[in-house]
Amino acid sequence: MFLTDKSTGFRFLIDTGAEISVIPPRIIQERNCTASKLKLFAANGTTISTFGEKLLTLDLNLRRVFRWPFIIASVSHPIIGADFLKTFGLLVDMKNNCLIDTSTGRKISVQMIASSEGKITLLAEDSPYKELLMEFPEIIRVEAKAKV
C-alpha cells in the first residue's frame, strides 16, 4: 500500500508490519551519513544499517500535517510503520484501499502494490533473547515522539 506525501513528493510504503518508520539516506540527500549504533532487522534476519534520524513534516491529504522523526536506514524506499500509524490514529483499510484518520474521520485512497520490502523489526529472529524480549517489549521499544 503506497501513498504520496504532497509536500515532498515522496512515495511511502504503508507497512503495518514494520515496527518503526524509516527513510533511505538518498531521500535526505545526505552524502556523509555516519552509521549509528541502532541496528534494525528484516524479516529474514538480515541486519539493516541506520544513520540517525530526520524530522519530516508530511502532508498526506488528511487535512492536517504530521511531524515525525524517521530513522534513516538502508532501505529501498520510505516506510510509514506501525509507530507512526498508532501515534496519529491512522487505520489501514485494505478492503477499501484507503487510509482512515480517526481524528478527523477523513479517508484517502491509497495505491495497492505488492512490495518486496520485508517486515522491519528491532529484534533478530534468531536472537537467543527473543522470547524474553517479546514478553517485555518495552525494554527495546523505540519511543519516537511526534513534534507538534
From TrEMBL:
<dbReference type="GO" id="GO:0004190">
    <property type="term" value="F:aspartic-type endopeptidase activity"/>
</dbReference>
<protein>
    <recommendedName>
        <fullName>Peptidase A2 domain-containing protein</fullName>
    </recommendedName>
</protein>
<feature type="domain" description="Peptidase A2">
    <location>
        <begin position="10"/>
        <end position="84"/>
    </location>
</feature>
<dbReference type="InterPro" id="IPR001969">
    <property type="entry name" value="Aspartic_peptidase_AS"/>
</dbReference>
<dbReference type="InterPro" id="IPR018061">
    <property type="entry name" value="Retropepsins"/>
</dbReference>
<dbReference type="InterPro" id="IPR034132">
    <property type="entry name" value="RP_Saci-like"/>
</dbReference>
<dbReference type="Pfam" id="PF00077">
    <property type="entry name" value="RVP"/>
</dbReference>
<dbReference type="InterPro" id="IPR001995">
    <property type="entry name" value="Peptidase_A2_cat"/>
</dbReference>
<dbReference type="GO" id="GO:0006508">
    <property type="term" value="P:proteolysis"/>
</dbReference>
<keyword id="KW-0378">Hydrolase</keyword>
<dbReference type="InterPro" id="IPR021109">
    <property type="entry name" value="Peptidase_aspartic_dom_sf"/>
</dbReference>
